[in-house]
Amino acid sequence: DKNKGLLITLDEAQNVNREQMRRIASCVQLLIRKRQNIAFAFAGITTGVLDLLNDDSLTFLRRAKSEELRSIPLDEVSGALRATIERSGLEIEDAALDYATKATAGYAYLTQLVGYHVWRAGRQHAESSPRITLQDAEQGVRQARQDFDNAVLETARHRKRISSSMQPPARMSEQSGRRYLSLCLQNGGTC
Questions:
Q1: What are the helix and strand counts (H, E) for the chain?
Q2: Closest to 103 measured CA to CA, from 78, 66, 84
Q3: Which of 76, 100, 124, 143 could pair with 117 in a Cys bridge, judged by C-beta atoms 3.0 to 4.6 Å apart?
């Protein structure tokens, strides 16, 4: 049927076994050659995705249309953080919201981490005060940066063995490189 097809989605592609990715790519490529209605979308940490694209046996993926997430405007981050916190029954001080928002740098994954950890810090005292304070935001941001470092920066260091000059991987876009360097500097200069 021409109105039906198959969509394969894969998140956290940097963690996929290379042999499994080769098999998936090979099957997708074969189905495309047979003019089947198929699409393959994958997402992951930039450096990990670049590793996949640089794999000599996955050249098919290099021809894929690439989309890089742009930074989320900070006013949208702020609105999303406030709305989510308020829907959970908590409030957030303006200074705490501003601190948390700026700490995300508009980066989607960091927004998730900061939001979760700031909310979690506020939940610890929700019985006595449902208001998230600047101190809660600072605590939450510290934990979010730690999680971010473990999940993203460590992956990048491990996969690319970034040199002490903190050069991003060769195929990383200029925007990603700037974001990567900025986050490294926010993390105390370690990459």
A1: 9, 4
A2: 78
A3: 143
Give me the long-range contacts of 21-25 (CB less than 8 A, separation at least 24). 21/52, 21/55, 21/58, 22/55, 22/57, 22/58, 25/58, 25/60, 25/61
Rounded distance, CA 7 to CA 15, Å? 20
What is the pTM (predicted TM-score) of this model? 0.64
Tokens (6 digits) for 84: 């989510």
Residues 30-51 pLDDT 10s: 888 898 898 888 888 777 777 7
Asked if the model's pLDDT at residue 169 lies above 50, the reply is no
Measured in whole angstroms, the distance separating CA 154 from the mean position of its chain's CA atoms is 13
Least confident among 119-133, 147-161, 165-179: 165-179
Q: Between 23 and 128, whose confidence is greater?
A: 128
Secondary structure letter of residue 10 according to DSSP:
E
Using a CB cutoff of 8 Å and minimum separation of 24, what contacts does 108-114 make? 108/69, 108/72, 109/148, 109/151, 109/152, 110/144, 110/148, 110/183, 111/72, 111/77, 111/80, 111/81, 113/143, 113/144, 113/147, 113/148, 114/81, 114/140, 114/141, 114/144
8 beta partners: 40
Q: What is the CB neighbour count within 10 angstroms for residue 174?
A: 8
